[in-house]
Specification:
Length: 143
């Protein structure tokens, strides 16, 4: 019964969402800040360099930075813009890729620890139930 209560408490989703440890929270905030700064710099550069409105600059910053090339008819002819875009692409792939890897690793670590804890609780519950069934039938102990 105790193992069942612990298993039920462990399986409760609100139990897991209590609080993110400070080290993980720091990692998430750092990843978010790096991507935010990267996109802000790209947006401001394209807005200033091409005199575009901010929404168009943001779209192109994401499009160029992630090397998507989705429906853009911009042909960069200036060396400064080409140089910035190359650096923007390299930084973007590195920043976003690194952030995704850290977040996926964090999720997988949580899943692995949760799975092993659930398996341990199931084994405890099964061994306790087998032990109690055995004592009820007189299999263990003196008869």
């Amino acid at each position: 019964n105790r193992a069942n209560n612990r298993l039920a408490a462990f399986m409760n989703p609100s139990h897991h969402m209590q609080q993110i440890p400070s080290k993980k929270r720091q990692m998430y905030l750092t990843c978010f800040a790096i991507v935010f700064v990267w996109q802000t710099l790209g947006t401001l550069f394209y807005s200033y360099y091409y005199s575009w409105p901010l929404p168009q600059s943001f779209f192109y910053s994401v499009d160029a930075g992630m090397s998507i090339g989705f429906c853009t008819d911009v042909h960069e002819s200036k060396v400064g813009s080409r140089a910035f875009t190359i650096i923007h692409i390299l930084l973007g792939a590195s920043c976003v890729g690194g952030a995704l890897i850290l977040m996926v690793q964090s999720v997988l670590d949580g899943v692995a620890s949760r799975t092993s804890a659930i398996y341990k609780l199931i084994l405890e519950r099964d061994s306790l139930s087998k032990a109690f069934r055995g004592t009820q039938r007189g299999q263990y102990g003196a008869s």
